[in-house]
Amino acid sequence: MWKLFKNAKLYCPNVSAETDVLIVGTSIAAIGKDLTLPDFVDGKVIDLQGKALVPGFIDAHVHICGGGGEAGPASRTPAIQLSQLSRAGTTTVVGCLGTDSISRSIAELLVKANALQEEGVSTYIYSGAYHVPMRTLLPSLEQDLVLISKVIGAGEIAISDHRSAQPQISQLQQLAAEARVGGMLGGKAGVVHIHLGEGKQGLKPIWTILEHTDIPITQFVPTHINRTPTLLDQGIQFLLAGGNIDLTAGCDDFSVDLRVPAVLRMLHERHLLNDRVTVTSDGNGSMPRYNDAGALIGMGVGSVEVLWRDIRTAVLEGLPLDVALPTITANVANILCLKNKGMIRVGYDADLVVLNNDLEVEAVWALGKCMVFDKQPQVWGTYEQSN
Protein backbone atom coordinates (compact mmCIF):
# COMPACT_ATOMS: atom_id res chain seq x y z
CA MET A 1 0.00 0.00 0.00
CA TRP A 2 1.19 3.50 -0.85
CA LYS A 3 1.14 6.21 1.81
CA LEU A 4 1.55 9.94 1.33
CA PHE A 5 2.42 12.21 4.23
CA LYS A 6 1.40 15.77 3.40
CA ASN A 7 2.64 19.00 5.00
CA ALA A 8 5.28 17.46 7.22
CA LYS A 9 7.88 19.54 9.01
CA LEU A 10 10.71 17.24 8.09
CA TYR A 11 13.71 16.40 10.26
CA CYS A 12 16.01 14.16 8.23
CA PRO A 13 17.34 14.46 11.07
CA ASN A 14 18.40 17.96 9.95
CA VAL A 15 15.43 20.30 9.72
CA SER A 16 14.01 21.16 6.31
CA ALA A 17 11.04 23.09 4.98
CA GLU A 18 7.50 21.72 5.21
CA THR A 19 7.09 19.09 2.52
CA ASP A 20 5.53 15.73 1.52
CA VAL A 21 6.89 12.20 1.85
CA LEU A 22 5.73 9.25 -0.27
CA ILE A 23 6.05 5.68 1.04
CA VAL A 24 5.82 2.69 -1.27
CA GLY A 25 5.95 -0.67 0.48
CA THR A 26 8.72 -0.58 3.08
CA SER A 27 10.73 2.32 1.61
CA ILE A 28 10.68 6.07 1.12
CA ALA A 29 9.94 6.60 -2.59
CA ALA A 30 9.85 10.40 -2.94
CA ILE A 31 10.24 13.62 -0.97
CA GLY A 32 9.05 16.96 -2.29
CA LYS A 33 6.36 19.60 -2.58
CA ASP A 34 2.85 18.91 -3.87
CA LEU A 35 3.24 15.14 -4.23
CA THR A 36 0.12 13.16 -5.15
CA LEU A 37 -0.90 9.52 -5.29
CA PRO A 38 -1.37 8.00 -8.74
CA ASP A 39 -4.98 7.16 -9.58
CA PHE A 40 -4.16 3.51 -10.16
CA VAL A 41 -2.84 2.72 -6.65
CA ASP A 42 -4.48 1.74 -3.38
CA GLY A 43 -3.11 4.45 -1.11
CA LYS A 44 -3.68 6.59 1.93
CA VAL A 45 -3.02 10.29 2.49
CA ILE A 46 -2.07 11.51 5.96
CA ASP A 47 -2.09 15.29 6.42
CA LEU A 48 0.37 16.10 9.22
CA GLN A 49 -0.59 19.80 9.23
CA GLY A 50 2.94 20.95 9.97
CA LYS A 51 3.75 18.38 12.66
CA ALA A 52 7.31 17.10 12.92
CA LEU A 53 8.13 13.94 10.95
CA VAL A 54 11.39 12.43 12.19
CA PRO A 55 13.35 9.22 11.56
CA GLY A 56 12.35 6.21 13.65
CA PHE A 57 14.47 5.94 16.78
CA ILE A 58 17.31 3.43 16.95
CA ASP A 59 17.88 2.03 20.45
CA ALA A 60 21.23 0.25 20.33
CA HIS A 61 21.24 -1.24 23.83
CA VAL A 62 18.12 -3.16 24.89
CA HIS A 63 17.87 -6.41 26.82
CA ILE A 64 15.18 -7.74 24.51
CA CYS A 65 15.07 -11.26 25.97
CA GLY A 66 15.33 -9.99 29.55
CA GLY A 67 18.16 -9.24 31.89
CA GLY A 68 18.92 -9.08 35.57
CA GLY A 69 19.37 -11.99 37.91
CA GLU A 70 21.85 -10.28 40.24
CA ALA A 71 19.48 -10.83 43.16
CA GLY A 72 18.72 -14.45 42.30
CA PRO A 73 16.37 -16.19 39.85
CA ALA A 74 13.30 -14.17 40.87
CA SER A 75 15.07 -10.95 39.85
CA ARG A 76 15.38 -11.92 36.17
CA THR A 77 13.49 -9.41 34.02
CA PRO A 78 11.04 -10.67 31.38
CA ALA A 79 11.41 -10.41 27.61
CA ILE A 80 10.30 -7.15 26.02
CA GLN A 81 7.02 -6.86 24.13
CA LEU A 82 6.55 -5.22 20.74
CA SER A 83 4.31 -2.38 21.89
CA GLN A 84 6.83 -1.29 24.51
CA LEU A 85 9.21 -0.49 21.66
CA SER A 86 6.68 0.96 19.23
CA ARG A 87 5.04 3.27 21.80
CA ALA A 88 8.52 4.63 22.54
CA GLY A 89 9.09 5.47 18.86
CA THR A 90 11.73 2.76 18.51
CA THR A 91 11.66 1.19 15.05
CA THR A 92 15.14 -0.40 15.18
CA VAL A 93 16.57 -2.16 18.22
CA VAL A 94 19.89 -3.82 19.00
CA GLY A 95 19.56 -6.61 21.56
CA CYS A 96 22.23 -7.58 24.05
CA LEU A 97 22.91 -9.80 27.05
CA GLY A 98 24.29 -8.46 30.31
CA THR A 99 25.47 -10.05 33.54
CA ASP A 100 23.66 -13.34 32.96
CA SER A 101 24.99 -15.41 30.10
CA ILE A 102 24.32 -18.65 32.01
CA SER A 103 20.53 -18.87 31.98
CA ARG A 104 20.34 -16.64 28.91
CA SER A 105 22.14 -17.30 25.65
CA ILE A 106 22.98 -15.81 22.27
CA ALA A 107 20.59 -18.37 20.76
CA GLU A 108 17.75 -17.03 22.90
CA LEU A 109 18.73 -13.45 22.01
CA LEU A 110 18.77 -14.25 18.29
CA VAL A 111 15.38 -15.98 18.38
CA LYS A 112 13.82 -13.03 20.24
CA ALA A 113 15.31 -10.64 17.67
CA ASN A 114 13.81 -12.74 14.88
CA ALA A 115 10.44 -12.69 16.65
CA LEU A 116 10.42 -8.90 16.99
CA GLN A 117 11.41 -8.59 13.32
CA GLU A 118 8.44 -10.77 12.34
CA GLU A 119 6.17 -8.60 14.49
CA GLY A 120 7.26 -5.41 12.75
CA VAL A 121 10.47 -3.72 13.93
CA SER A 122 14.03 -4.03 12.62
CA THR A 123 16.42 -5.91 14.89
CA TYR A 124 20.12 -6.65 15.35
CA ILE A 125 22.12 -8.18 18.19
CA TYR A 126 25.53 -8.17 19.82
CA SER A 127 27.28 -11.46 20.39
CA GLY A 128 28.61 -12.11 23.89
CA ALA A 129 27.75 -10.62 27.28
CA TYR A 130 29.57 -9.16 30.30
CA HIS A 131 32.09 -11.95 30.56
CA VAL A 132 35.37 -12.61 28.76
CA PRO A 133 36.18 -15.12 27.27
CA MET A 134 33.03 -14.53 25.26
CA ARG A 135 30.09 -16.88 24.92
CA THR A 136 29.13 -16.93 21.25
CA LEU A 137 26.64 -18.89 19.17
CA LEU A 138 29.20 -20.33 16.76
CA PRO A 139 32.72 -21.33 17.89
CA SER A 140 34.11 -17.80 17.51
CA LEU A 141 33.08 -14.14 17.38
CA GLU A 142 34.45 -13.92 13.85
CA GLN A 143 32.11 -16.70 12.73
CA ASP A 144 29.12 -15.07 14.43
CA LEU A 145 29.85 -11.80 12.60
CA VAL A 146 30.42 -13.41 9.20
CA LEU A 147 27.71 -16.08 9.25
CA ILE A 148 24.85 -14.66 11.35
CA SER A 149 23.23 -11.70 9.61
CA LYS A 150 21.83 -10.06 12.74
CA VAL A 151 25.14 -10.02 14.66
CA ILE A 152 26.78 -6.62 14.21
CA GLY A 153 29.38 -6.63 17.00
CA ALA A 154 30.35 -7.83 20.47
CA GLY A 155 28.74 -6.66 23.68
CA GLU A 156 28.04 -5.62 26.20
CA ILE A 157 31.54 -6.51 27.44
CA ALA A 158 32.00 -5.39 31.04
CA ILE A 159 35.10 -3.65 32.32
CA SER A 160 35.75 -1.55 35.43
CA ASP A 161 32.87 -3.25 37.22
CA HIS A 162 32.75 -5.66 40.15
CA ARG A 163 30.37 -7.84 38.09
CA SER A 164 32.79 -8.19 35.17
CA ALA A 165 35.12 -11.14 34.63
CA GLN A 166 38.03 -8.79 35.34
CA PRO A 167 39.44 -9.52 31.87
CA GLN A 168 43.13 -9.26 31.11
CA ILE A 169 44.25 -6.69 28.56
CA SER A 170 45.39 -9.49 26.27
CA GLN A 171 41.87 -10.98 26.31
CA LEU A 172 40.22 -7.67 25.44
CA GLN A 173 42.82 -7.09 22.77
CA GLN A 174 42.13 -10.46 21.15
CA LEU A 175 38.37 -9.85 21.34
CA ALA A 176 38.73 -6.47 19.61
CA ALA A 177 40.93 -8.01 16.92
CA GLU A 178 38.34 -10.70 16.23
CA ALA A 179 35.58 -8.10 16.12
CA ARG A 180 37.51 -6.04 13.59
CA VAL A 181 38.35 -8.91 11.25
CA GLY A 182 34.93 -10.50 11.60
CA GLY A 183 33.30 -7.16 10.86
CA MET A 184 35.42 -6.68 7.77
CA LEU A 185 34.67 -10.16 6.45
CA GLY A 186 30.98 -9.91 7.24
CA GLY A 187 30.47 -6.37 6.02
CA LYS A 188 29.49 -5.31 9.55
CA ALA A 189 30.57 -2.57 11.95
CA GLY A 190 32.21 -5.17 14.18
CA VAL A 191 32.18 -2.78 17.13
CA VAL A 192 32.95 -3.79 20.70
CA HIS A 193 30.19 -2.37 22.88
CA ILE A 194 31.85 -1.80 26.26
CA HIS A 195 29.91 -1.71 29.53
CA LEU A 196 31.57 0.65 32.01
CA GLY A 197 30.97 0.34 35.72
CA GLU A 198 32.20 2.50 38.56
CA GLY A 199 35.47 0.59 38.88
CA LYS A 200 38.87 2.15 39.42
CA GLN A 201 40.24 1.71 35.91
CA GLY A 202 37.52 3.43 33.90
CA LEU A 203 38.57 3.55 30.24
CA LYS A 204 42.20 2.77 30.98
CA PRO A 205 42.08 -0.82 29.58
CA ILE A 206 40.83 0.52 26.25
CA TRP A 207 43.50 3.22 26.13
CA THR A 208 46.14 0.55 26.79
CA ILE A 209 44.93 -1.49 23.80
CA LEU A 210 44.94 1.59 21.58
CA GLU A 211 48.47 2.48 22.65
CA HIS A 212 49.89 -0.99 21.97
CA THR A 213 47.99 -2.17 18.88
CA ASP A 214 46.85 -0.91 15.50
CA ILE A 215 43.15 -1.36 16.35
CA PRO A 216 41.41 1.97 15.61
CA ILE A 217 39.64 3.85 18.37
CA THR A 218 36.34 3.65 16.48
CA GLN A 219 36.25 -0.11 17.02
CA PHE A 220 34.99 0.58 20.55
CA VAL A 221 31.66 2.01 21.71
CA PRO A 222 31.86 2.54 25.48
CA THR A 223 28.46 2.95 27.12
CA HIS A 224 27.22 4.28 30.49
CA ILE A 225 29.81 7.01 30.00
CA ASN A 226 27.68 9.42 32.06
CA ARG A 227 27.73 7.12 35.10
CA THR A 228 30.17 9.24 37.16
CA PRO A 229 31.86 12.65 36.76
CA THR A 230 35.26 10.96 36.38
CA LEU A 231 33.96 8.60 33.71
CA LEU A 232 32.29 11.44 31.83
CA ASP A 233 35.56 13.38 31.83
CA GLN A 234 37.32 10.31 30.47
CA GLY A 235 34.59 9.95 27.85
CA ILE A 236 35.10 13.51 26.67
CA GLN A 237 38.83 12.82 26.24
CA PHE A 238 37.91 9.65 24.32
CA LEU A 239 35.59 11.70 22.10
CA LEU A 240 38.25 14.33 21.51
CA ALA A 241 40.65 11.57 20.42
CA GLY A 242 38.19 10.46 17.73
CA GLY A 243 36.28 7.80 19.65
CA ASN A 244 32.58 7.05 20.05
CA ILE A 245 30.72 7.51 23.33
CA ASP A 246 27.28 6.31 24.35
CA LEU A 247 25.18 7.95 27.07
CA THR A 248 22.58 6.02 29.06
CA ALA A 249 19.11 7.55 29.35
CA GLY A 250 16.74 7.17 32.27
CA CYS A 251 19.32 7.50 35.04
CA ASP A 252 17.07 9.43 37.38
CA ASP A 253 19.14 8.42 40.40
CA PHE A 254 22.17 10.23 38.93
CA SER A 255 22.93 13.83 39.80
CA VAL A 256 21.22 16.22 37.37
CA ASP A 257 24.47 17.17 35.64
CA LEU A 258 25.07 13.51 34.70
CA ARG A 259 21.65 12.87 33.19
CA VAL A 260 21.33 12.82 29.41
CA PRO A 261 19.61 16.22 28.94
CA ALA A 262 22.31 18.06 30.91
CA VAL A 263 25.20 16.15 29.32
CA LEU A 264 23.91 16.78 25.79
CA ARG A 265 23.53 20.48 26.51
CA MET A 266 27.02 20.62 27.99
CA LEU A 267 28.53 18.87 24.97
CA HIS A 268 26.66 21.18 22.61
CA GLU A 269 27.83 24.29 24.46
CA ARG A 270 31.41 23.02 24.25
CA HIS A 271 30.99 22.22 20.52
CA LEU A 272 31.56 18.52 21.22
CA LEU A 273 28.14 17.12 20.30
CA ASN A 274 29.22 15.50 17.04
CA ASP A 275 28.30 12.40 15.02
CA ARG A 276 30.16 10.08 17.42
CA VAL A 277 27.80 10.70 20.35
CA THR A 278 24.83 8.38 20.85
CA VAL A 279 22.18 7.75 23.49
CA THR A 280 20.64 4.38 24.41
CA SER A 281 18.05 3.30 26.98
CA ASP A 282 19.58 0.14 28.50
CA GLY A 283 15.91 -0.79 28.37
CA ASN A 284 14.38 -3.93 29.87
CA GLY A 285 17.51 -4.67 31.85
CA SER A 286 17.65 -4.83 35.59
CA MET A 287 18.46 -1.66 37.46
CA PRO A 288 20.38 -2.90 40.49
CA ARG A 289 21.20 -0.50 43.29
CA TYR A 290 24.30 -1.12 45.37
CA ASN A 291 25.64 0.48 48.51
CA ASP A 292 29.23 1.67 48.93
CA ALA A 293 30.27 -1.84 50.00
CA GLY A 294 28.97 -3.34 46.74
CA ALA A 295 25.97 -5.04 48.38
CA LEU A 296 22.72 -5.16 46.39
CA ILE A 297 20.07 -3.03 48.08
CA GLY A 298 17.34 -2.83 45.42
CA MET A 299 16.25 -3.78 41.91
CA GLY A 300 14.19 -2.21 39.11
CA VAL A 301 13.48 -2.74 35.41
CA GLY A 302 14.70 -0.29 32.78
CA SER A 303 12.18 1.28 30.38
CA VAL A 304 12.80 1.90 26.68
CA GLU A 305 10.55 4.97 26.91
CA VAL A 306 13.32 6.92 28.65
CA LEU A 307 15.22 7.20 25.36
CA TRP A 308 12.85 9.74 23.81
CA ARG A 309 11.83 11.11 27.22
CA ASP A 310 15.38 12.32 27.86
CA ILE A 311 15.91 13.63 24.32
CA ARG A 312 12.58 15.45 24.50
CA THR A 313 13.54 16.97 27.86
CA ALA A 314 16.82 18.21 26.38
CA VAL A 315 14.91 19.87 23.53
CA LEU A 316 12.33 21.43 25.83
CA GLU A 317 15.22 22.82 27.86
CA GLY A 318 16.75 24.52 24.84
CA LEU A 319 18.71 22.02 22.74
CA PRO A 320 17.60 22.29 19.07
CA LEU A 321 15.63 19.25 17.93
CA ASP A 322 17.78 18.77 14.84
CA VAL A 323 20.88 18.74 17.08
CA ALA A 324 19.46 16.21 19.55
CA LEU A 325 17.84 13.80 17.06
CA PRO A 326 21.02 12.37 15.48
CA THR A 327 22.07 10.85 18.83
CA ILE A 328 19.24 8.32 18.48
CA THR A 329 19.00 8.16 14.67
CA ALA A 330 21.71 9.03 12.14
CA ASN A 331 24.69 8.79 14.49
CA VAL A 332 23.69 5.30 15.61
CA ALA A 333 23.10 4.09 12.07
CA ASN A 334 26.47 5.46 10.96
CA ILE A 335 28.51 3.98 13.83
CA LEU A 336 26.81 0.57 13.57
CA CYS A 337 26.72 0.53 9.74
CA LEU A 338 22.95 0.03 9.65
CA LYS A 339 22.08 0.35 5.99
CA ASN A 340 19.15 2.61 5.05
CA LYS A 341 18.45 3.53 8.66
CA GLY A 342 18.52 6.71 10.71
CA MET A 343 17.54 9.29 8.08
CA ILE A 344 14.57 10.31 5.95
CA ARG A 345 15.90 9.94 2.41
CA VAL A 346 14.67 8.42 -0.82
CA GLY A 347 15.50 4.72 -0.83
CA TYR A 348 15.79 4.51 2.96
CA ASP A 349 13.54 2.32 5.09
CA ALA A 350 10.19 3.91 5.90
CA ASP A 351 10.83 4.14 9.66
CA LEU A 352 9.06 7.31 10.74
CA VAL A 353 7.81 9.00 13.89
CA VAL A 354 5.25 11.81 14.07
CA LEU A 355 5.70 14.21 16.99
CA ASN A 356 2.84 16.39 18.16
CA ASN A 357 3.27 20.03 19.14
CA ASP A 358 4.36 18.96 22.64
CA LEU A 359 7.03 16.70 21.08
CA GLU A 360 5.23 13.56 22.21
CA VAL A 361 5.29 10.42 20.07
CA GLU A 362 1.93 10.51 18.32
CA ALA A 363 2.35 8.00 15.49
CA VAL A 364 4.96 5.47 14.38
CA TRP A 365 5.59 3.66 11.11
CA ALA A 366 8.15 0.85 10.92
CA LEU A 367 9.14 -0.39 7.46
CA GLY A 368 6.08 1.39 6.11
CA LYS A 369 3.64 -0.27 8.52
CA CYS A 370 1.63 1.81 10.96
CA MET A 371 2.55 0.60 14.45
CA VAL A 372 1.12 3.45 16.56
CA PHE A 373 -1.53 6.05 15.75
CA ASP A 374 -2.95 8.70 18.08
CA LYS A 375 -0.57 7.26 20.69
CA GLN A 376 -2.32 3.88 20.54
CA PRO A 377 -0.65 0.69 19.25
CA GLN A 378 -2.10 -0.56 16.00
CA VAL A 379 -0.01 -3.74 16.00
CA TRP A 380 0.45 -5.96 19.03
CA GLY A 381 3.01 -8.62 19.78
CA THR A 382 1.98 -12.24 19.48
CA TYR A 383 1.28 -12.69 23.19
CA GLU A 384 0.20 -9.15 24.07
CA GLN A 385 -3.27 -8.20 25.20
CA SER A 386 -4.67 -5.22 23.29
CA ASN A 387 -6.72 -4.12 26.26
From TrEMBL:
Location of this chain's protein in the cell: Cytoplasm
Binding site for substrate: 68-70, 99, 130, 163, 227, 286
Enzyme active site: 282 (proton acceptor)
Family matches, as Gene3D superfamilies: Metal-dependent hydrolases, Urease, subunit C, domain 1
Residues reported to bind Zn(2+) 1: 61, 63, 282
Transmembrane segments: none
InterPro entries with a match to the protein in the record: Amidohydro-rel, Amidohydro_3, Metal-dep_hydrolase_composite, Metal_Hydrolase, Metallo-dep_Hydrolases_sf, Pept_M38_dipep
Domain of life: Bacteria
Residues where Zn(2+) 2 binds: 195, 224
UniProt function note: Catalyzes the hydrolytic cleavage of a subset of L-isoaspartyl (L-beta-aspartyl) dipeptides. Used to degrade proteins damaged by L-isoaspartyl residues formation.
Name listed for the protein in its UniProt record: Isoaspartyl dipeptidase
Record organism: Desulfosporosinus hippei DSM 8344
